[in-house]
Specification:
1112 residues; 7-stranded parallel sheet
Length: 1112
């Protein structure tokens, strides 16, 4: 690969050099302003911000003035003109953004020079004196670093940064100016650890905050968000820009709304995402906290947009049958079958060792492959495979039995109860396993899915009545549904028992299963494995099995961050994921050169045969480095290895600190000591992210920080992150990885050439090989895993893209209803779409009677056509004429409602107006009642029209919310049910797209009909003023916020919410739940005729009111 890259560079050129050549003029232009800016007084320096803002306002004035004029015109325009106006406004908003981006690029060098000069003055002076502004006076009441003396404000260069006093001592390097311009352009800046990413961000943050549209700085945890806001804040505040951190404030609070209205807002990725979801559950514009998504800089962008991208944010609540599952019932059987297979294979492994020792490699290899397919994570097997020639024998045997599409593999598996594919993280029951499990229940078909096509064919060929056939088909579908769920539950339990180990993938804390982040080793609170796997682990560990919940709102971080007009990021480890950043986010990765050349010594990997040899070598090296007076950072991949190394060091009486998932709260203290001479720190490969290990001159003289990696991680960037802890800002240091053939990466994806080479060289115990070819071979293995993981995330995104297209439509209509300004256009479109649907549905069958019946149901309007006209006119002519009649009727209805309500409003306002500001007015359509909140004064002054507008808004919001919530539940069920398509050799994603499209269209039709029906029929129940009451502040429902972890690589796309619920809403089904593909019987209420068909085909007939569902 390196040869190909070298050849490509000759013909195409080096991307890094090309990028830097384009960016170098930014540095030159910025430095050109330095002399001019340095000659300014402090007040003149601050005045530059107003100068920049004025230039931006001038550049966008043409567009903003046009938008204002169009908004005024829209208030009085007719409905057709309104739609055009809103289209023009949207275009002008885009044009205004482009104009502001153009002017920002023009002023960028000068703005960068202003921030650099500000940093310089804070570093060189203990305080800066300026003329006090109103903003200075406001800040001085809460900031100790700002003091006032009459008309003078004194800004000290010391302030509190999240509990730690800092003295400003940083000025931007030239390479940091390059990084700032990359971030402003909406790209990812890869900067090495210690290059000052937080300082670099001040440049584009200041520049983009000048627009007043809000800049979001996103961090991986709340500590960094609060620290960076407090640390960098005074630089921005000195120039009159407001800064806040959302993690300081409660959700939905005025303080959080104020934080979002600040020029610069810091926060964690989760909180930004959850606030977006909460805003789209709001019932009043006053409840909204976020502004339109303008510009975001994501710190540690690989962690947020890659690692966290597989975990959708979910707001959920209680659902019916939430605690119905078979985990407890099936657990004893799984426990038994796993124990039997383990005991059997332990004996087989002993037989393998004996056969191979006697020279019978054919039978030995056959049985060795059986052990590997039945228990690949067995420590005895892993150790045996590290012996000379054994791994080669396994690979040779596996290749033989895998040929011809695994034709011979059943011979290997015939004595196994289940087969584990560790690479794909999947498990499959064998025929023997199914027989064993079925035998416990006395039903040999207990785990066997019926062949639907064959069974249905047999039922159809039987000489029985239609009712009996329908009943048998219904039983068949029910049996298929129950067994597919049972097989799924069984597979998840088997995975929990065989692939997930306590203290490695998860820990038990407070009687709950907590997932350990494989990258950082931190506990991931609130996150659960998806698709019932978490419940399976809870059953395995005998902790409470949490009930399933229903989704109320959900979004993946991928789709959340793609909403920003401009997105950029910074990290030290992005280049290895550059393809994914471009493919999903269209983000280019630019490598920023270091300020001081890197002198860290990155050594080739040491490769051992066994873990025991490897760990002994690690401890010997630590002992040697401690004697040299160098600090050592030991990187591990799990809690278990951290504790093992800790025990080994304790035996040798070497002092050390351990930082892992159980001790993550001590991280800041441990990292602070990690650079001291002779200190040994054991941490996960990405621990201490966002912090630098600083070294004394004594330590630098001894050789600097020594990095020891005890295992290669699945991802190259995690290893690069560990290496990056050393060598900051030209410091000396070294990095060395220790690898064994027993490591997970080497076992699963390592090249067999390494095993062959070690065997050929005849290495004895404790001997090691080290070569650049070996290191490159390991990196190739890592690339395989990275490609696999990217596939997982891409698959998840493909599912969420389907949801996202629906989410955008619903949330857009919801916003229109919330603000009300564009609601009239939406209602007109609803009327037209519903008229078109009525005509199309009934024109095909020329059923004028049903057409009139449906028309009266939704609009209380009789048919404007005779039966003859209905048959002869075209669909378009019928739709246009019907729309004119129905919409005119709607307008008349609104006028009547306003006039009717005004009498009540007038009475209340004139007699009790001093008591009420907002009132609740009940409306009913004859079957249900909805309370409408309106402003009393506005309703009175508009002669009831304000109340009618609020009536439209409230009705639309209520019906959209109820229908969307039900739709999300159906989408959850659909996502789970389509996975059964794999049994029929079909692509679940394709079926999901088709079915969800049908579901969504049906949902939109339902929303349109229900909203219009209530708007046409809704009336005040009476003219009694006593029915109107004072509006109270609406309290939000308590819901559960959570993230799901997609661990399973083979069927990771399934989403079965299993977060801990809080009682929000109780849904009680009075009838049996019917699946969309189940066959049902419906009866015509007029003729008594029965029909048997799929439930999804029956839904439109039932909704018309002429057919009803009957139980057979």
């Amino acid at each position: 690969m390196s040869i190909i890259n070298s050849v490509l560079k000759v013909f195409v050129g080096d991307k890094k050099k090309k990028d830097l050549k384009l960016l170098q003029p930014i540095v030159t232009n910025t430095l050109a302003f330095e002399k001019e800016i340095s000659d300014l007084t402090n007040n003149q320096l601050r005045e530059k911000t107003n100068y920049f803002k004025l230039k931006i306002a001038e550049a966008t004035h043409e567009f903003t003035s046009k938008i204002t004029a169009l908004e005024e015109e829209a208030k009085e325009a007719n409905i057709d003109r309104k739609e055009d106006i809103y289209g023009e406004i949207d275009t002008l908003v885009d044009d205004s953004y482009e104009a502001s981006e153009k002017i920002l690029s023009e002023i960028m060098p000068e703005a960068f020079a202003v921030i650099k000069e500000t940093a310089k003055r804070f570093k060189e002076n203990n305080s800066i004196t300026v003329t006090a502004t109103a903003f200075d006076r406001e800040l001085s009441s809460t900031r100790e670093n700002i003091t006032l003396e009459n008309e003078i404000a004194i800004w000290a260069n010391k302030w509190d940064a999240q509990g730690k006093e800092v003295t400003w001592d940083m000025v931007h390097y030239d390479v940091q100016l390059i990084g700032g311009s990359v971030l402003h352009q909406g790209k990812i800046a890869e900067m090495m650890t210690g290059e000052g990413k937080t300082l670099v961000s001040t440049l584009p943050v200041y520049l983009n905050a000048l627009t007043g549209k809000g800049v979001h700085v996103v961090t991986v945890n709340d500590y960094l968000a609060k620290r960076d806001a407090a640390w960098m804040g005074p630089i921005f505040e000195f120039h009159g820009l407001s800064v806040d951190c959302i993690d300081h404030h409660e959700p939905n609070s005025n303080a959080r709304r104020k934080a979002y209205n600040s020029d610069i807002t810091y926060g964690t990725n989760n909180e930004f995402g959850f606030d977006y979801l909460r805003d789209n559950m709001a019932h009043s514009p006053n409840d909204l906290v976020q502004r339109p998504h303008y510009y975001a800089i994501v710190d540690e962008v690989d962690s947020v947009l890659v690692d966290d991208a597989r975990t959708p944010l979910i707001i959920s609540g209680a659902t019916a049958n939430a605690d119905r599952h078979e985990f407890n019932e099936l657990k004893p059987s799984v426990d038994k079958i796993v124990s039997i297979q383990r005991n059997y294979l332990t004996g087989v492994l002993a037989e393998v060792k004996k056969l191979i020792k006697e020279g019978d490699t054919k039978e030995g290899g056959f049985l060795l492959l059986r052990v590997y397919r039945g228990l690949p994570k067995s420590k005895a097997l892993i150790k045996f495979l590290s012996q000379e020639g054994i791994r080669q024998l396994l690979q040779k045997t596996e290749n033989h039995y895998m040929q011809d599409n695994n034709r011979e593999m059943p011979k290997i598996d015939e004595e196994l109860y289940f087969v584990i594919d560790e690479k794909n993280n999947s498990i499959e029951l064998t025929d023997k396993g199914i027989t064993f499990l079925s035998g416990d229940d006395g039903d040999e078909n207990f785990f066997i899915l019926p062949d639907l096509s064959t069974e249905i064919g047999q039922i159809d060929s039987e000489d029985t009545s239609t009712e009996e056939k329908t009943s048998k088909k219904e039983d068949l579908y029910r049996d298929f549904s129950i067994k597919s769920e049972r097989i799924h539950t069984m597979n998840q339990l088997l995975k929990a028992y065989t692939l997930f180990e306590k203290d490695i993938e998860y820990v038990i804390m407070d009687d709950k299963i907590k997932i350990v982040d494989e990258q950082t080793g931190r506990i991931m609170d609130g996150r659960r494995y998806s698709d019932g796997l978490h419940q399976a682990i809870e059953a395995k560990e005998n902790v409470k099995i949490e009930a399933a919940t229903q989704t109320y709102a959900t979004v993946t971080l991928q789709n959340y961050f793609r909403m920003y007009r401009k997105l950029s990021g910074m990290t030290g480890t992005a280049i290895t994921e550059a393809g994914e950043f471009w493919d999903i986010y269209k983000l280019d990765v630019i490598e920023i050169p270091t300020n001081v050349p890197l002198i860290r010594d990155d050594r080739e990997d040491f490769v051992f045969k066994t873990k025991r040899e490897k760990y002994n070598a690690v401890i010997d090296e630590i002992e040697n480095l401690v004697k040299q007076g160098r600090p050592i950072l030991v990187g591990t991949t799990s809690v278990e290895i951290s504790e093992l190394l800790g025990r080994m060091l304790a035996i040798r009486k070497i002092d050390h600190n351990v930082l892992n998932a159980k001790l993550h709260k001590k991280e800041a203290d441990i990292v602070a000591q990690a650079g001291n001479a002779g200190i040994v720190t054991i941490a996960t490969n990405m621990a201490g992210r966002g912090t630098d290990i600083k070294l004394s001159d004594e330590v630098k003289a001894a050789g600097g920080l020594a990095i020891i990696g005890t295992e290669r991680h699945d991802s190259r960037r995690v290893d690069r992150q560990l290496r990056g802890r050393a060598g900051r800002q030209g410091d000396p240091g070294s990095s060395q990885f220790y690898v064994s053939l027993e490591d997970n990466l080497m076992r699963l994806f390592g090249s067999e050439r390494i095993a062959k080479m070690m065997d050929r060289m005849g290495l004895k115990e404790g001997e090691v090989i080290q070569h650049s070819m070996i290191t490159k071979s390991i990196e190739r293995a890592q690339r395989k895993v990275e490609e696999n993981n990217f596939g997982v995330r891409k698959r998840l995104l493909e599912y969420d893209d389907v949801m996202n297209s629906q989410r955008e439509v619903i949330y857009k209509r919801r916003r229109h209803a919330l603000y009300g300004d564009r609601l009239q256009v939406d209602i007109v479109n609803m009327v037209f779409d519903t008229c078109s649907l009525l005509v199309r549905e009934n024109k095909i069958t020329a059923d004028h009677q049903n057409f009139e019946f449906e028309l009266i149901r939704f609009s209380s309007t009789s048919s404007p056509f005779t039966e003859e006209e209905f048959k002869t006119l075209s669909i378009q002519e019928l739709t246009d004429q019907l729309f004119d009649v129905v919409y005119k009727h709607y307008q008349e209805k609104l006028e009547r409602s306003a006039k009717s309500a005004f009498g009540v409003i007038k009475d209340i306002f004139e007699n009790q107006g001093d008591k009420y500001e907002r009132i609740v007015v009940p409306f009913t359509d004859g079957t249900k009642e909805l309370k409408v909140v309106t402003n009393l004064k506005e309703a009175y002054e508009s002669k009831g029209k304000g109340l009618v507008t609020d009536f439209e808004k409230n009705i639309t919001l209520a019906i959209i919310d109820d229908t969307w919530k039900d739709h999300l539940r159906q989408m959850d069920e659909l996502k789970q049910s389509v996975q059964n398509a794999t049994y029929e050799q079909k692509d679940p994603l394709l079926i999901y797209k088709f079915e969800s499209f049908e579901l969504f269209n049906g949902m939109l039709d339902k929303v349109n009909k229900e909203v219009l029906s209530f708007l046409f029929k809704g009336e005040l129940p009476s003219q009694d003023v006593n029915q109107v009451s004072q509006a109270r502040e609406r309290t939000r429902d308590k819901v559960q916020l959570s993230k799901e972890d997609y661990k399973n690589q083979s069927d990771n796309t399934q989403t079965n919410q299993t977060q801990q619920p809080q009682i929000v809403e109780t849904i009680v089904r009075s009838e049996r739940k019917v699946g969309r593909n189940e066959h049902v019987t419906i009866k015509n209420v007029m003729s008594g005729e029965n029909k048997s068909l799929k439930y999804k085909q029956a839904i439109p007939l039932i909704q018309k009111g002429q057919w009803v569902l009957v139980d057979e």
